[in-house]
Amino acid sequence: MGRHIHSEDVVDSTQKVAQRHVFEGAPEGTVLIAEEQLSGRGRMDRKWHSPKYTGIWMSVILRPNLPPAKAPQLTLITAVAVVQAIEEMTGLTPEIKWPNDILLNGKKVTGILTEMQADADRIQAIIIGIGINVNQQEEDYPEELQPIATSLAIEYGKKLERAELIKVLLVKLEKLYSIYLDQGFYPIKLLWESYAISIGKNITARTITGSISGRALGITDDGVLMIEDSNGTIHHVYSADIELEK
Ligand code: BTN
Predict the structure, then answer these.
(1) Which atom of ligand 1 is nearest to the CA of 46?
(2) pTM to 2 decimal places
(3) Which residues of this UniProt protein bind biotin (predicted)?
(4) Which of 83, 130, 204, 245 is the most buried (most CB within 10 A)?
(5) What residue owns the CA closest to ligand 1's atom 9?
(6) Is the ipTM here above 0.90?
(7) Which run of H or E residues covers position 97?
(8) Domain residues of the chain, as ranges?
(9) CATH number of 202-244
(10) Residue 58, strand partner residues
């Protein structure tokens, strides 16, 4: 992981740069990093605020020989790797909000966006976009983000060396990915659940087709969230925004 690192100053989005590399046949483990993104992208077509020199804006290309339905598992592996890297660098333990928001003190410190190119039965490439807010101060955020976003520097009280964090993250990701390829998803699922905040809690999941409220039971072996509503019906949620009930 990270044997091929392409680092640029300003890009539109590292996801787009990665797509070009995938098209040109980039090997598994290729990493694209930028100092600044002019059109950083988030989940559900949102923008991702990616100012210069403050965060880690990177995309990792993986080419697992797996069916497309396994793609969400790779997002969950990445979330665990980010949590472990932050833990190692700061001693703080972030929490994961399904599917892949990483929070410190209830505010978002990292987002993960997974995009895939696949045939009907095989993944060609997965591009995992990771945005880590590292050295921003509160006033660096636009007003609308201040109540919901944070950075490692804000929570840890000191600035961090971004290159060091990238190195630690790639080591963790490589290790978890190889556990996954050798032993399957189960060991990763246990780790993921140990960091997850939503499991066992009452939540509302807002999907594109409507809302589902109930108790989050856990994730399936494919990384799908299970919610039990008040009638005892279990819903499988593939993509949603989650709100924890107070
Ligand atoms: C989210 O909505 O939580 C996901 C945010 C993902 C942001 C990262 S930053 C690097 C990569 N390039 C992008 O344009 N987006 C991802």
Answers:
(1) 2
(2) 0.93
(3) 37, 41-43, 108
(4) 130
(5) 131
(6) yes
(7) strand 95-97
(8) 5-195, 202-244
(9) 2.30.30.100
(10) 33, 130
